[in-house]
Write a structure and sequence with these properties.
There is one protein chain. By secondary structure, the protein is an alpha/beta fold. The chain has 2 domains: 219 residues, Spore Coat Polysaccharide Biosynthesis Protein SpsA, Chain A; 73 residues. The chain has 11 helices and 7 strands. It has a 7-stranded mixed sheet with strand order 3-2-1-4-6-5-7, sandwiched between helices. The chain is elongated, with a radius of gyration of 24 Å.
Length: 319
């Protein structure tokens, strides 16, 4: 059986590029259905996509995360290819992504963006921010990804239908990455050319505003997925602060037998109590998080592997 492939294109005011994106992916994956989700565009995005042969749907709630949530809920397929509608990604890489997904029985394949440093594809600060936040996620979770903000990905059905999709904006790529790392899913990366937007096309990503939101999302997801580590670090910091403030009091007490600075002594006691409280919160929440992770893992396993993977395994064995 040939797997059902859906190409998902979230769009907002991409009337200049979306038609070419649709045609490119229909050519690269002729067996796929291309869906364009219009997110309150004020230009000809929906009309241009429909004229190019896409199935056009609308999501009124603003934000890429809301569009991804709607796409994953609405579309039923075996393999999903998600790509931005800005024309910066190469459709020719999609067949390789699908092949890797099926033959290696993976759950996500990410197209890491390769571009000439002088090509202008990345805006000022984006390359540094991408590198910094990618390394931060790798340090907190698992360093298996080299580009966590790529908008060009292929997913299995069991990934899509087990993804909680809680983000509302551009932090959704971070959530997609951490979901795979949290459940230890089989993933891979392929290199894909990344080009600059054509003249007249504007990015919706705000460097500083969305950068802060993404950083906050990483910290929040770390707290949700690894609460013992999160509150353990907080408890350690509070305990060290308490001991640093208590040391002069301890030295004075050994020398004179007196504790002259009662306000500092009270403060030290309060900070140490907060450290033990943070540690207790980490232990309790870690038990809760483990139960949630087990439930998500069972939901993930109930959906089965990529369609066509078994036949690919049999073909490889016969060869």
């Amino acid at each position: 059986m040939q797997p059902r492939i859906a190409v998902l294109v979230p769009c907002r005011n991409e009337g200049i590029t979306v038609a070419e994106v649709v045609r490119a992916f229909k050519g690269a994956l002729p067996q796929a259905t291309v869906y364009v989700y219009d997110n309150n565009s004020t230009d000809r995005t929906a009309a241009a996509a429909a004229e190019a042969g896409a199935v056009v749907r609308r999501e009124p709630m603003p934000g890429k995360g809301n569009v991804v949530r709607r796409m994953f809920a609405d579309i039923d397929a075996d393999i999903y290819v998600m790509v931005d509608g800005d024309g910066t990604y190469d459709a020719g890489v999609a067949p390789e992504m699908v092949r890797r997904l099926v033959e290696d029985n993976l759950d996500m394949v990410v197209a890491t963006r390769a571009t000439d440093r002088n090509g202008g594809a990345f805006r000022r600060g984006h390359r540094t921010g991408n590198w910094t936040l990618t390394r931060f996620v790798g340090w907190l979770f698992d360093p298996r990804f080299s580009d966590i903000f790529s908008g060009y990905r292929a997913f299995s059905r069991r990934y899509v239908k087990s993804f909680p999709a809680l983000a509302s904006g551009f932090e959704v790529e971070t959530e997609l990455t951490i979901h795979a790392l949290e459940l230890k899913m089989p993933i891979a990366e392929v290199t894909a050319p990344y080009s600059a937007r054509p003249e007249g096309s504007r990015s919706k990503l705000s460097t500083w505003r969305d950068g802060v939101r993404i950083f906050a999302a990483i910290v929040f997801l770390f707290k949700e997925a690894r609460p013992f580590k999160f509150f353990g670090v907080l408890a350690s910091a509070l305990a060290l602060m308490s001991m640093a403030l208590a040391w002069p009091l301890f030295v004075t007490y050994l020398e004179t037998g007196l504790v002259p600075r009662y306000p500092t002594a009270v403060l030290v006691t309060g900070i140490m109590l907060m450290a033990f409280l943070a540690l207790a919160c980490g232990i309790v929440l870690d038990t809760v998080s483990r139960g949630r992770r087990e439930a998500k893992r069972l939901r993930y396993l109930a959906l089965g592997p990529v369609a066509g993977a078994d036949s690919a395994d049999r073909r490889t064995a016969s060869e």
